[in-house]
Every structure is written in structure tokens, then in C-alpha cells.
């Protein structure tokens, strides 16, 4: 089954974490894989030549909803899904090549799972979380692209966990929403608060989709009312690397050191969640996602459309039982999802043409100008919408 793909490119000077780079053609591509927008070589003219957009998590929901609904229809055992989310952090992890990071848990998860090297989010949490819950660009439902706004959504739009509930899943969110839209939270989640947990499902055999948000790396950690206790050696400010777009001052070094400490604390919190899964005897049947909601959080990162504000980590672990769903072998590092995808994933989610609907009610393909096929949304529910040129 062919994939819908389009690319956006332009000639531009790009400010990177290391300063100015040379003018290069840039592009992104949408694909039905767990990592959602990637930069890949592109040399043709694009009808979107003035725009370049890098965003995250359009496809996670589509893959989960359609794949798991399809499995539900077959009445076989289904995997649990666990999302472990950190806040406001770029790829400051050992498995992403940061020599100063102390992240043994995530490094091990990456060695056993699949690590995506080119995963990009919107640079602040609320627009990013709008995309997470809907699978749509925040700008497509303005003003959801702005912080603390209420995106205008159609009445039929549901948060994708509602579809998982319809498929028999127990859904829990602990605890952040911040969806920037009037998404019906009670419809999406069985439980959504700081006590929400998959352990609370009445039937221990019921599959679950659970989200845990870890705020220890949130930008507020740089302005603490009190320092958190550390059970490891604190980062030495003299060792941190100050990028050229920040002043090399004692205060800046202190912020960097504190942030590395909080990354290490986050890694320990992730370890605790994985240990809970093991103790409950659920690890062998649970697919684990780790990602950050957006980049950050030091100056010129969060809220900035630079790599420092948009480049986020994404690691997915598939236990041996569900390894056939993985896009690559354990320990793989994916730069271009199009080159490393598992063909077995292509059949899910099902693709449908205009005026058609799949059995999961997820429509991916739309006719574009000049007969091209483009996808304004990674997935959506409801009747097909007209795409105007």
C-alpha cells in the first residue's frame, strides 16, 4: 500500500545551535510511522515553498487508534501502551550523544528499542498537546497555535483516546491536559488527574493506554523555591558547554548545571515507572513511548522555532511479543523513517480516498491541486473535507 507523502522546502539560512549554517534546501515528509516529520533530501519545487514546518506526533495516535481497533475486531490479545512524557527538554540524553548527561534508564531503553534522531515538535506545550490529542496541525484550528487559546474544532472531533476506549481500552492521563481546545476530556479518558493510573482499571485483563507527565524538567525548574535533593553528584557548572548564542556567564552555567541535574532526576522517575510495570507483570505486553512535549528550556529554546526549541527525543520500546510491530530492529537509530519502515506497518492505519471511509473511520488521503495527493492532517475523524487549492 502506498504512503501519502508531501514535502515542504525552501532555500533559507538557518540558525542552528552552533550558529549560522549555509543556505540549504530543507524539507519534511509525512509518513505513517511512529515518528512523524522528518527532514529528507528534496530537489523539486513545492507548492508550499514559503513554509517549512516541523511538528510532532501526528502519527502516534493514528497508528494506535487504527491498529488497535483492527486488532480488537479480530478479538485477540492486544498490547498495553504506556506514554512517558518529559517536559521542555531537547535531546540532552546520553543515547543522543550528550557526554554530560546522566540518563542510564533512557539509554538502556534506547538500546532495546528504536530511537528517532529527527523528531520535531512545536516549540511550546499547548499547541504541541493540541496536536497530540487531535493528530492535526494546531494552526489548522486557530487560534490553537497560540498559547492559552481555545482552538476552534468541529463538533465531531474527539480526542483520539476516546477511540481507544471504544475499542475496549482503559485510558488514563496523569495529569496534564493543556490541549488548547474544548476537547471533551471525560470522553477521552477514564481517569484524568494526578492519581490516574492503569492499576485502577477494574478488570486486570483489560488493555490500557496510560500517560504519565514528568514536570521535573519543566522550565520552572530553573527558578526553584527550593533545590531538589540529589542522590548523585551534581553537575559541575565548569563542565557544561555554552552554545554561541548564549552569554558565557556564571549565572548561565549555573542554569545549565541545574538543568542537567533535573534531566538526571527525570531519568530516575522514568526508571520508577518502568519498575512498576515490571513488578505488575505487565512489561512483556506493554509498548513504551518516551518523548518530550517540546524543546527547551534555556534561553532561545522553548517558544523559538529553532532546533533548540523543536528538536525532541523520541524512543519507542517494543517487547519481544510485539516486536513485529516495530519499524526496525532493537537498538536501531532512525534518521529517515521512510527508509527504515517495516512494511507490516503500512497496512495500518488503512488509507482511504476522498468520499470513502475506512472501517476505523480514519481518512488519510485527500486530492490536492493538479491531481496531487496531499495530507493536510495526519489523521482525522468524520466525513472527508474538501481541500481547496
- By DSSP (H or I, 4+ residues per run), the number of helices equals 8
* CATH topology grouping: Alkaline Phosphatase, subunit A
Tally of domains? 1
CATH superfamily: Alkaline Phosphatase, subunit A
How would you portray this structure in words?
- The protein has about 400 residues and is an alpha/beta fold.
- It has a single domain (about 60-345), classed as Alkaline Phosphatase, subunit A (3-Layer(aba) Sandwich).
- It is about 20% helix and about 15% strand.
- It contains eight helices and 16 strands.
- The protein has an eight-stranded mixed sheet with strand order 10-9-11-7-12-13-8-14, sandwiched between helices.
- Helix 1 (about 60-75) packs parallel to helix 4 (about 160-165).
- It starts with 9 loop residues before the first strand and ends in a 15-residue tail after the last strand.
- The relative contact order is 0.20.
Keywords:
single chain, 389 residues, alpha/beta, Alkaline Phosphatase, subunit A, 8-stranded mixed β-sheet, two-stranded antiparallel ribbon, 16 strands, 22% helix, 14% strand, globular, disordered N terminus, disordered C terminus
Task: Describe the structure in brief.
The protein has 389 residues and is an alpha/beta fold.
Amino acid at each position: 500500500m502506498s504512503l501519502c507523502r508531501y514535502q515542504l522546502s525552501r532555500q533559507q539560512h538557518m540558525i542552528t545551535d552552533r550558529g549560522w549554517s549555509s543556505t540549504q534546501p530543507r524539507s519534511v515528509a509525512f509518513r505513517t510511522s511512529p515518528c512523524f516529520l522528518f527532514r529528507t533530501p528534496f530537489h523539486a519545487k513545492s507548492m508550499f515553498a514559503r513554509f517549512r514546518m516541523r511538528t510532532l506526533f501526528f502519527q502516534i495516535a493514528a497508528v494506535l487508534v487504527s491498529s488497535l481497533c483492527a486488532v480488537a475486531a479480530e478479538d485477540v490479545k492486544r498490547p498495553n501502551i504506556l506514554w512517558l512524557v518529559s517536559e521542555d527538554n531537547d535531546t540532552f540524553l546520553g543515547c543522543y550523544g550528550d557526554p554530560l548527561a546522566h540518563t542510564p534508564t533512557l539509554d538502556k531503553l534506547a538500546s532495546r528499542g528504536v530511537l528517532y534522531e529527527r523528531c520535531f515538535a512545536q516549540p511550546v506545550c499547548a499547541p504541541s498537546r493540541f496536536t497530540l490529542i487531535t493528530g492535526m496541525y494546531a494552526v489548522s484550528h486557530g487560534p490553537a497555535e497560540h498559547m492559552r487559546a481555545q482552538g476552534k474544532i468541529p463538533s465531531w472531533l474527539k480526542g483520539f483516546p476516546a477511540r481507544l476506549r471504544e475499542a475496549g481500552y482503559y485510558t488514563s492521563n496523569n495529569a496534564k491536559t493543556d490541549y488548547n481546545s474544548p476537547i471533551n476530556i471525560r470522553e477521552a479518558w477514564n481517569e484524568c488527574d494526578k492519581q490516574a493510573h492503569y492499576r485502577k482499571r477494574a478488570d486486570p485483563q483489560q488493555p490500557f493506554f496510560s500517560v504519565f507527565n514528568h514536570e521535573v524538567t519543566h522550565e520552572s525548574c530553573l527558578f526553584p523555591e527550593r533545590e531538589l535533593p540529589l542522590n548523585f553528584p551534581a553537575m559541575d557548572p565548569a563542565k557544561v558547554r555554552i552554545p554561541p548564542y548564549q552569554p558565557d556567564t556564571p549565572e548561565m552555567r549555573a542554569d545549565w548545571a541545574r538543568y542537567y541535574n533535573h534531566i538526571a532526576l527525570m531519568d530516575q522517575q522514568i526508571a520508577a515507572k518502568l519498575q512498576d510495570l515490571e513488578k505488575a507483570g505487565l512489561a512483556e505486553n506493554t509498548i513504551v513511548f518516551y518523548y518530550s512535549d517540546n524543546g527547551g528550556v534555556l534561553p532561545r529554546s522553548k517558544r523559538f522555532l529553532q532546533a533548540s526549541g523543536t528538536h525532541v527525543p523520541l524512543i519507542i520500546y517494543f517487547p519481544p511479543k510485539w516486536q513485529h510491530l516495530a519499524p526496525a530492529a532493537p537498538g536501531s537509530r532512525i534518521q529517515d523513517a521512510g527508509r527504515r519502515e517495516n512494511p507490516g506497518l503500512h497496512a495500518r492505519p488503512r488509507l482511504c480516498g476522498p468520499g470513502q471511509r475506512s472501517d476505523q473511520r480514519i481518512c488519510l488521503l485527500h486530492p490536492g491541486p493538479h491531481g496531487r495527493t496531499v495530507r493536510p492532517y495526519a489523521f482525522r475523524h468524520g466525513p472527508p473535507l474538501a481541500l481547496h487549492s
